[in-house]
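Incident review: delayed structure delivery

Summary: a single-chain prediction request sat in the queue longer than the usual turnaround. Root cause was a stuck worker, restarted by the on-call engineer. No data loss occurred. The affected request and its eventual output are reproduced below so the record is complete for anyone auditing the incident later.

Affected input:
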Amino acid sequence: MTNATRRTLLRFGAAALAAPAMLASGTTARAQSVTKWRMQALWGGGTTPMLYEEKFCARVAELTGGSLEITPFAGGQIVPSAQAFDAVRGGAFELMKTFDGYTAGKIPAHGFSSTVPFGFPEPDQYEAWFYERGGLEMARESYAPAGLTYVAPTVYGQEPIHSRVPVRKIADLKGLKGRFVGLASAVMADFGVSVSPLPTSEVYSALDKGLIDIADRGDIKANFEEGLHEVAKYLILPGVHQPTTATSYVANTRAFDALDAQQKAALAVAAREISGTLRQNILVANGEYIKKFQDAGVEIIDFDPEDVAQARAKAVEAWKKAATDDIAKRMMVSQIALMQELRLL
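Output delivered after worker restart:
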């Protein structure tokens, strides 16, 4: 064996010995580069919306090649749902799925980034406001002072009104006791409803005991699964208090800023995909579950479209009173402008 051959073999041997160490080092580097987040959602475990939050987390992992792992938790699993805003703000976990209407009392803009009573009748219209008319940027502006980053909305259709008494026209709302939250509280009060912002968990019992006459709670399928057909024999459509709905992904700003560009993009892409797929699931489920309500003896009442259109003009005055800060006013003005272009106003 020549000296040159011996040197070549020695070099290959050294490389072979180094390879496992290099692979181990590379594996460790990759493992260390994985960012792990926790997300608390609004929904109960096993419910349809919660299943879609799990799909959202899986899609983020797929889009980032596993570099961003988000573990989903059902509502209340980490902290009580009412404490999620402060928990994410303080860094207890990195991401929440929330409904901005819950914080509309403190941040007026959130009344307009969650739902617009008597507003956009179609979810595509409301989603267009977020992505085409600056709604997304204004929503982010509203959260920024709290150290939170609004990532993206999930937009879907109406939530119905459940009632113990027949409500056949908008004027019949006057004098009733009702459960509503967010901007809907202010608007329904202007239509003569005595509003109580009860927690979602108390809607069934409040209707059952007659503490309220009418209530908002969730989408049609979720409300049937909750048993509202047992305590309210009228289901009223369209849900004028919440004709379209936006829930939102909101992150701790420091955690969000620490992500790389691909991870941030993955959050945005996955959120918009889930917005569309959940909306389509609810659209299909609505017909099935309206039939279930009817089979359970519930009467479906449809408001006259002209009645709703006339009431929308009155609702605008309630919106104006609720827009008490600069961001809320800008949101409202841009929404009204889009509704006018769509010939809704």
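Verification: The longest helix spans residues 261-295.
Action items: add queue-age alerting; document worker restart procedure.
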